[in-house]
Amino acid sequence: MPEEIQAPTLSNITEAEKASGDLQLRLAGIDTEQFFFERERAGLEAEAASSARQKAQGLRGRASYDSQRLREMDTERQALQAQLQVLAATTEIVDLSQQTQNLTNSLKEGRIAQAQAAFDGLAEWPLWLEKHMPFIQRDVEAAGQADALFQLFRKGNPRALTRINLIARAAESGLTCGRRADVLEMMARVQQSCEKERLRFSAHDQVRTVFPRLDREIVERLSALKFHGIRVPRETNVFAAAQTLADQIDLDPQVVDYLFTRRRDARLLRSDWERRLRVGFCTGHLIWDRPKTVNPKRLLDYNRLIDQEACTKALSIVDRSRGALLATFHSSMALMSRSVFNATFANRIVLDGSGTNTQTISMKDDARAGLFLALRAVLGGKAVLMAPDGRQGQRDHFCIAAGKPVRVAAGAALLAYESGCFSAWYNIVRDGKRFVPVVIEAPKPDKGEDFDSFAQRWLAFYGNQIEILLTGDPRKMSLRGAWWGTLSAWDR
């Protein structure tokens, strides 16, 4: 039993105890030794808890720092790899240029053996050969040697037939010299090789529009080669198919580097961001080139993936009382955008390069006349769809997109200025596993404002909408070949 504490009285309190802090404790009948022990233990526990909190905060800060450093290291690694690739390429650039010139000259002069040697060497660099083949093909066919070029593809280094673009070029030359049966045999042979290695393609290789010299049957076979092994039995499978196809597309590294630095979401690692970019482009390729389904009688209709409720809501802001102008741009969603436009507006006109029916106006041969007809259509209360970034018209104005000037015509701004109609940016983008329209009202001319000032404001708005797309979610960046070419030229 512990010794019983004697309650203090005034008579047994010493002078030392009166001067000490223990007096109040003894008067309360508290064991002073036990009290100070408990107090010290509580202090130690508080100190330990504080230390633990500080360590936890330090660990969180360290984790945040490590995560940021990992992102920086990933970016540095990607940049270093790109530099090494450029360095490796520059060591071969002189020789490749010389071989390209030798190939062209040898074919033009009928020196087939020398041409074969040059071609087989260049075929080991298929991306280089793809880049220069349009010029080789132009000069060789002008010299009447299309058949010689086609035979190099047929019998030369098979590496030349590992890319969709080069297969299409070979088919063009073969059809030019009347060797259709040989073209079909070549493509059948390539299809067999696809079982071992899938073909690669570039961002601009949308086969249904890029190669107008190919007839429908050849285009269908080319599309089948491009999507060999890719199954899209239903429209909803397109996103999973794009994930698979993303491993086969080649994107210009300089453009990818530039767009990565302009992205608005800095949280994504370079590898994740670039993967999403590839998926975005491949989604566009699948929608544009439309691979065959398992059931050949069933055609894919990607309009079924459009969110109809979102579509109705987005287009409800369009004021049709004085005509309307919807300005889009050349993306892989252009066909879908046009389909939604046609379904929404009964009284409509589309400006394009064909003018094949009464609801289209051709801008190809006479852009001024086409613009005048479009103005009459708007003033007559019609809805007009056009893409100001097209190649037709007098492209003497600029808009800024992703920090770079892009040459455009001011026809859309002129329509909005002269008619006073409702004008807006219009595009279709991916939203999860659906597609939704984006409609944003454009500026209106101020009272007394001259056209040049208004055109500058309107085109600034238009360029800003494209920039939002180029710097946002890369899965929505399904650009067409013309835009990819524009981007490719920016930093060169």
Task: Give a written overview of the molecule.
With 492 residues, this protein is α/β, with parallel strands linked by helices. The chain has helices at residues 15-19, 23-27, 32-108, 112-122, 126-142, 146-155, 164-176, 180-193, 207-210, 216-226, 238-245, 253-262, 270-289, 308-315, 334-344, 367-379, 411-419, 451-471, 481-488; strands at 201-202, 249-250, 324-327, 348-352, 360-362, 383-386, 397-401, 404-408, 422-431, 434-441. The strands form three sheets. The protein has a six-stranded mixed β-sheet with strand order 5-4-6-3-9-10, with helices on both faces. The chain has a two-stranded parallel sheet with strand order 1-2. Strands 7-8 form a two-stranded antiparallel sheet. A hairpin with a 2-residue loop joins strand 7 and strand 8 (404-408). The longest helix is centred in the first third of the chain and has 77 residues, at 32-108. The termini are far apart. Residues 1-13 have low confidence and may be disordered.
Q: C-alpha Rg, in Å?
A: 35 Å
Care to count the β-strands? Answer: 10
Order of strands in the sheet with the most strands?
5-4-6-3-9-10
Distance between the termini: 93 Å
Average per-residue pLDDT, rounded, comes to 82
Percent of sequence in beta strands: 5-15%
| Overall form | globular
State the low-pLDDT regions, or none: 1-13
Q: Give the helix proportion (percent range).
A: 55-70%
Would you tell me the structural class of the helices and strands? alpha/beta
- Topology pattern, helix = H, strand = E: HHHHHHHHEHHHEHHHEHEEHEEEHEEHH
- Characterize the biggest β-sheet: 6 strands, mixed
Helical run tally: 19
